[in-house]
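Hey L., structure's done. Input below.
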Amino acid sequence: MQVSVADNAARLEPQAGFDRISLRRLVLIRWFAVTGQAVTLMVVHYGFGFRLPLVPSFAVIGCSVLLNLVFTLSRRAATRLGEREAALFLGYDTVQLAGLLYLTGGLENPFSILMLAPVTVAATILSQRPVVALAGCAVAAITVLALWHLPLPWRTQRMEFPPELILGLWTALVFATVFIAGYTWSVAREARRLRDAVAATQLALAREQRVSAVGALAAAAAHELGSPLATIAVIAKELVRDLPSGSAHAEDAALLLSQSERCRRILAELAHQPDQDGVSPYTRLPVSALVEAAGAPYHDPRVRLIFATTGSPDDPEPEVARSPEIIHGLNNLIQNAVQFARREVSVTTYWDKSVVTVEIADDGPGIPPNLLGRLGEPYLSTRADVAGHMGLGIFIAQSLLERSGARVSFDNFDEGGAHVVISWRRDNLETMARQPAAAGVAP
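Output:
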């Protein structure tokens, strides 16, 4: 067995992509930036006595203020920008800051470290291509500032920085830009992927719960409609018996009787289908029956699916709740084993006084060694290029099973084939089965 994703998980997985970025947030960041720039210029010029080119510097700041006002007045506060617009927005901030540093000493200015700010913001919200473009823009601006800039303002004569120091500053800023952009983007990307994977897990569980809820409603309807249908049937029989054969209503009465009997048969079938969806998710059943119900949809003619039980003779088989989490988790793992098996998949359930364990084994190629230690991570698949396989099956299965209190482990047999072990504390499973439904289904 190799890493794959269940087909239903692929259908539930949200489309990959990035959220549109809030214009209000970017405008607010720029307001903080221009306020800090203006205050710093005033303090350095008038407080510390360093003669700065205030007019051109405030002209550069004024461009940002004007642009912010245009965005604020022409766009709604709730506007969300696409990646291209957001990248241009942050690209302008990079150029604006480079222009201000050009007027105030270039890389010799201690505030040149702020060239990292727009790239860091971009790395948290944008995809790879615009982040690379903005990092390249920042590196180009840093290079220009290292070679060309107005002198650093000073009280007396101009300070001369040795070329080695400028080269060191340039190297440090370039490496910091590349590292921060790459690292921040990878962390943010992983967080987005995990968020999407968790959303897919929640959707899978919600679907399983909806199916169970529909089944519970069907069973309740069968129970509640039984009595009135019985009354209708009794009255219809009396009408058929009492009406003379030549009556104009005799045929209608016979039809009413036959249809009432048909309704009773349909409701009886709904009420007696324990392996179908028409069952409450809180029905107690033997743990081996729960495991077989989870694997029932995946009988493949080319693969023999074997269910076996092994229990202590002194301990009766535990009865457990028909939990959507357990069913969907086992469902994904058994499907995965069937897809990669050559001829046979065995699912063994055993129990004792303290533990209930389900083992899934197949005779396939096994889990690739380089992925064995990473199983359970989202978007991990040996079939990532195959349509419909997103690498979420194992993640969803493990997440749902762990939610039910299980421990899941993966390994390979020496002779080949994968081996999955799911184990619960017996008292936890039996407690879940005894607990009443937290949210009942109204009949």
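The beta strands are 21-22, 80-81, 284-286, 304-311, 319-321, 344-351, 355-362, 407-412, 418-425. The radius of gyration is 34 Å.

-- N.
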